Amino acid sequence: MEPSPLKRQDRPSSFQPKIDSLYAQLLERDGDELNDFSDGFWQEFFLLRPDKACLRRRLDEIDADDLLEIQAETQQLFRRSVVQIQSLNGVSVESALDTLTVFLDVVLAKRYTNPNSDIITVLAGLDEVDDVFLDFAHAIENVIRNGGPGLFEQID
Question: Is the distance from CB of 125 to CB of 75 less than 8 angstroms?
Answer without folding.
Answer: yes
